[in-house]
Amino acid sequence: MKTFSLLIAVVAAVAIIAYPVITSAQAAWYPIDPTNEPHVQELGAWAVSEHVKQAHDGLKFSRVRSGEEQSDAGVKYHLVMEALNGDGKRGRYEAFLVEQVRSSTRTLISFSPAK
User: Fold this and answer.
1) Tens-of-pLDDT digits for all 115 residues of the chain?
2) pTM of the full predicted structure?
3) For residue 31, how many C-alpha atoms fall within 13 Å in the half-sphere facing its CB?
4) Among 101, 93, 104, 114, which Cα is nearest to 47's?
5) Which residues of 63-93 are buried (b: 16+ CB within 10 A; e: fewer)?
6) Residue 86: CB partners within 8 Å, gap ≥ 6?
7) CA distance 39 to 5
């Protein structure tokens, strides 16, 4: 009985330690090629548009330069884009967004100048 209890405790400990590794927060990111994906360019334009609605800074979308996606409950995107500011100067920006295909909704998680 003592051995069985010890075995149960070890299995429980392993499960607790391994759980974070298999949760969606740890899902892998996969690179995407924005030049061959019109949908990715559309997402970039949408992200800039949503940012402008919130910040009122007049950015104008140019193109998505690179990106990666993560499949979870919906698809999470990390996009690096070029946009023109109010002075017409080109800048690099990054956005994180989630697209729910089933409900046809998008949510902008963050938008900031790229590092």
Assistant:
1) 555 443 343 333 333 333 333 444 578 999 999 988 999 999 999 999 999 999 999 999 999 999 999 998 799 999 999 999 989 999 999 999 999 988 999 999 999 999 8
2) 0.75
3) 5
4) 93
5) ebbbbebbeeebebbbbbbbbeeeeeeeeeb
6) 57, 58, 59
7) 54
Give the pair of three-digit tokens for residue 71.
């499949």
Place of tokens 């998680």: 109
What's the number of CA atoms in the CB half-sphere (13 Å) around residue 51? 24
Q: Which of 34, 33, 35, 81 is nearest to 59 (CA)?
A: 81
Amino acid symbol at 43:
L
Tokens 């924005």 belong to: 34
Domains by residue range for the chain, with CATH: 27-113 (3.10.450.10)
CA–CA distance, 65 with 37 (Å, rounded to integer)? 11
What are the residues whose beta carbons fall under 8 Å from the beta carbon of 62, sequence distance 6 or more?
81, 82, 83, 84, 90
